[in-house]
Amino acid sequence: MEETTLELPTGQSKTQANTPDSINQEIERQIEANVGYFKRQSNEAIKERIDSLDREWDAGRAVSGMNAALAIAGTGLALAGNKKWHYLTAAAGAFMLQQALLSWSPPLAVARRMRIRTRNEIKLEKQALENLLNQPS
């Protein structure tokens, strides 16, 4: 039986380029470990993992959610009494603009420290798992 290897892309995304190497390497090791684990599992388990990956939030989506939560919280707290909370809403807007213009923002750095993966990292694991399904028995 031919050994399936996990080939990592040669180029990095802006998100990966702005993430400490130690975190990128830890995420890569986790992807390799996940694929290694599923090599020994049934096709049904692999398909369930692929379905799970389809539902996994990538770093960009997580950051959008964080920024929206900050904006809503800031607005709500400002309406409840202290107008200084509008600064939180303004910060969330600034983070959204920075993310759109630079493909990086402080909340993205937080998401990466939390080991939230990029869309490409999720896709890499999914492709490797699909390759396992397509191997002859």
List the helices and strands and how they pair.
Elements: H1 14-17, H2 21-39, H3 43-55, H4 59-80, H5 86-102, H6 106-113, H7 119-134
Helix pairs in contact: 2-7, 3-7, 4-5, 4-6
Protein name: DUF2892 domain-containing protein
Region (Disordered): 1-20
Organism: Planococcus koreensis
Describe the structure concisely for a colleague.
With 137 residues, the chain is mainly α.
Structure description:
Residues 1-20 are annotated as: Disordered. This is DUF2892 domain-containing protein. The radius of gyration is 19 Å and the shape is elongated. Helix 2 (21-39) packs parallel to helix 7 (119-134). The longest helix has 22 residues, at 59-80. Helix content is 72%, strand content 0%. It has one domain (19-132). By secondary structure, it is an all-alpha fold.
Helix content: over 70%
Number of helices: 7
Elements, N to C (H/E): HHHHHHH
Mean pLDDT: 91
The low-confidence runs, each spanning 5 or more residues with pLDDT under 50, are none
Beta-strand content bin? under 5%
Q: What characteristics describe this protein?
A:
72% helix, 0% strand, mainly alpha, DUF2892 domain-containing protein, 137 residues
